[in-house]
């Protein structure tokens, strides 16, 4: 079963648009290596699937590790948040239930929130609403809404 | 007009016609030659830094050859074997303007592809910026600005017995930006790995191909959280972080060189040119005064960590990042009786109502228990060991947890594994003397890597062993022959305790050679012949009797080396959750064994076998009892067995004394050995 899963993930990966040159830097991203994902590990496939399904026209050069080397710009931030949430969804879910944790703090900083304590408090309070659909994308969307509109967070978060 | 002056005239004519257009070209060509000459007089290619940047090593014949195996890493066609030519080509390439070939949007000018080579050549030859080709390296500059490296850490991912690629552990490099607003796990890590497809790779194939450079290895870069998720959460491996005391400029040099390595691939050799070896190269570029690679023929990740520690002042801090499994064990060891009992009951059948509907009890820390159970659910899911309906239970418990407000002290745990740098050396020399039913013997042995069952466990996975390329040979006094006692291409033993947290399978795999004892065939026939001779030729009786005596005196048994392939699977048991050191472990397993020796049992025989292990561990003392029984009698040849009892005393992690006894069919032995590890 595991093997079938790995193979199908691998095929999904090969078929992913990561191998299609983007207008920006092409499959090589802008950095190390020329092949995007060379290690074929499950985690990397998670990223591939994430990017494949959700980030519009973003080529995430894994080999560059730095998201197409763009460091500023709205879409860039969003892509970074998205990949982070997909990669760490289970951990985030657990840390939000708890109200603290290392991954939650990193997520807070990716969301532009300087006060991780308040971020965690709000996350814990709104836990059931944030995670009710049980998908990384819906959670991220709701969290973005909170960051933009929650009176406790607006002060300490810069979008 | 003679030919020579004719051609000169042509050149003069061409020059006067086009000279005005190509003067800039001519000057740059002149400049290139000038700088190449300067490099030649300075013997710049002999500089250690150039050698490091191109990854040259000296062959046994004293020639240079680069470890990089891709032509894209060189600017000269002979670059792989010729540091001097490569340097001249580099000077030329960096000073020659070039535009991208059509349709090659990933094309980069050599000066952008090799920024560190360029920087160094510029510094060494004092070349003004204006003499270089005008190039736009924004891609590299953006990348570099994103990383913004200021510091570096070596990360060690501990041994993972469930994947062939991971039995030696793994090292990666982390680049730290020093940006206070960038969280640790959002920084980037550099990974060097062999490109084997794990879906189709089994341990044996991987080991053999990995030994002979059958895989290409490349560098890649990931956000650190990707690696944490991979090692800590999915594979449940502890991470150790060693912060290096490198100056910012050193780290920046190394990072620029890392960009250059993007164009390179190296053949991956398991035991020497592996992840740890190439990190050595990177650190040497950062600080060329370090000579990390001039050591043993083998580079084992755990050993390299020691090497970093040994360099005075290189490692300034060590941090432990426990895996999901270790976190659970840490919490379990801090539980009181009531809490542990409740935990066990919940984990037995996933009935969380025992916790969620419980009346408040001062002896039970609800949040603490919830977190431990949540971790355990996640761990079991990652192991593929959780029933479908537990997913729902997990969600309910999360919701319950989000409503709890009690706090507990979530710190002050002690590490579950020990840092690899406190472990014994991975290579070993065995020296033994012994006595047996076939006479006295002296023996010696060698292990390339990494850890055997009688070794001290500090810095390794407890109750496990991985022998990679090890052998033992003996000289028996009676037979006057050198005998290959055992040989392991690879031997792995993993005894992971079975408990409420995970029904881990323990296993044993061995491939190579072992020894067994057989009744000599020749003896019977010789005796019969001589008896007939005594009857038929009485005149030679005294000689015949003398021969008969000789035959009966000569040994009836001989020790034979067999080709061997075997595996067993089973369960191990240990009181893992209690505080304090874990002293005892018992394991029961069953599997099969293939034996071939060409002399006896002439066909390869595949037979079922059963095995048991018992281990008692008292730090510097350890006792191991192992029993194997092979049911060869299904082929009409006698069963065989191997019972071994060993006692070990460690004078020091690298110096051990051992007393061992072994019993096999037709054979017993006792031996004393001294084991030196390095």
Which class of secondary structure composition applies to the elements of chain B? Answer: alpha+beta
* Structural class assignment of chain A: mainly alpha
Number of helices of chain A: 9
How many angstroms separate the termini of chain A? Answer: 43 Å
Characterize the biggest β-sheet of chain A: none
Averaged pLDDT of chain B, please? 87
The count of strands of chain A amounts to: 0
Shape of chain A: globular
Tally of alpha and pi helices of chain B: 18
Biggest interface goes to: A-B, 55 and 50 residues
How many domain units of chain B? 5
* Main β-sheet, spatial strand arrangement of chain B: 10-11-12-13-14-15-16-17-18-19-20-21
**Estimated radius of gyration of chain B:** 33 Å
Shape verdict of chain B: flat
Percent helix among the residues of chain A?
Answer: 55-70%
* CATH architecture title of the largest domain in chain B: Beta Barrel
- Which percent range describes the beta-strand content of chain A? under 5%
- CATH class categorisation of the largest domain in chain B: Mainly Beta
Low-confidence stretches of chain B: 1-23
Helix proportion of chain B: 25-40%
Domain Lnb N-terminal periplasmic (chain B): 140-309
Domain DUF7843 (chain B): 43-124
Domain DUF7840 (chain B): 418-672
InterPro entries (chain B): DUF7840 (IPR057162), DUF7843 (IPR057165), Lnb_N (IPR025178)
Description:
The complex is a heterodimer of chains A (159) and B (678). Chain A is mainly alpha-helical. Chain A folds into two domains: 1-64, no CATH class; 76-155, no CATH class. Chain A is built from nine helices and no strands. In chain A, 47% of the residues are buried. Residues 1-40 and 51-74 of chain A have low confidence and may be disordered. Chain B is built from 18 helices and 21 strands. Chain B has five domains: 23-135, no CATH class; 145-321, no CATH class; 324-402, no CATH class; 423-516 and 564-677, Beta Barrel (Porin), CATH 2.40.160; 521-554, no CATH class. In chain B, the strands form three sheets. Chain B has a twelve-stranded antiparallel beta barrel. Residues 1-23 of chain B have low confidence and may be disordered. The termini of chain B are far apart. Chain B has helices at 3-42, 48-53, 83-95, 110-113, 115-125, 138-147, 203-211, 224-234, 248-261, 275-286, 301-310, 324-332, 337-349, 353-356, 366-382, 390-402, 522-536, 541-553; strands at residues 56-58, 64-66, 151-157, 170-176, 188-194, 215-223, 239-244, 266-268, 315-321, 428-436, 439-451, 464-476, 481-494, 506-519, 557-573, 584-596, 605-618, 621-630, 640-652, 655-664, 667-677. By secondary structure, chain B is α+β, with helices and mostly antiparallel strands. The interface between A and B is large, with 55 and 50 residues.
